[in-house]
Design a protein that fits this description.
mainly alpha; 2 helices; 0% strand
């Protein structure tokens, strides 16, 4: 019986080795090849995903920087607009003050000119009236009461003119 066990064990080992060799050649080889290709594909996909993630992060960072730059530019534009509007308002106020001063000076000059004309006209008028009064007084040698009436009459004439 020992021989039989021994022969069946040797036969089982030889059969196992042949089966192992056949499986290795026809089953495990193609299976391992497919599994290796699958592993490489997964590795490539993981590498691609990592690259895409890094690119997305870089793009996000660039967008954040661009957004921050746009905000800074917007604030600068707003500040410049405020400054410009304040400057223009100051210029308008100053221009209005200058114009008001010029108009006031022109009005004062016109008033002074008209006053001088009026004084000159009044002097001429008073001189003429004085001559008329003197000539009337000389023509009429009147008493004091008549003289007062004559002066009042001429004053009324001057007042009405």
């Amino acid at each position: 019986m020992d021989k039989f066990i021994w022969e069946s064990t040797v036969f089982a080992i030889v059969a196992f080795l042949v089966l192992l060799w056949l499986l290795n050649k026809y089953a495990f080889g193609p299976l391992f090849t497919v599994m290796e290709k699958r592993r490489q594909l997964i590795q490539e996909q993981m590498n691609t995903a990592e690259t895409s993630r890094k690119a997305a992060e870089a793009s996000l960072d660039e967008q954040k920087v661009a957004l921050e730059q746009a905000r800074k530019e917007a604030y600068a534009i707003i500040d410049q607009a405020r400054s410009t509007s304040t400057k223009q308002a100051d210029e308008i106020v100053q221009s209005a003050k200058n114009e008001a001063t010029r108009l006031k000076d022109d009005a004062l000059k016109d008033i002074e000119s008209e006053k001088n004309k009026a004084i000159a006209a009044l002097r001429t008028e008073v001189g003429g009236i004085s001559v008329k009064i003197a000539s009337k007084i000389i023509e009429k040698q009147v008493d004091e009461k008549s003289q007062e009436q004559l002066v009042d009459q001429y004053l009324k004439e001057v007042g009405s003119k």
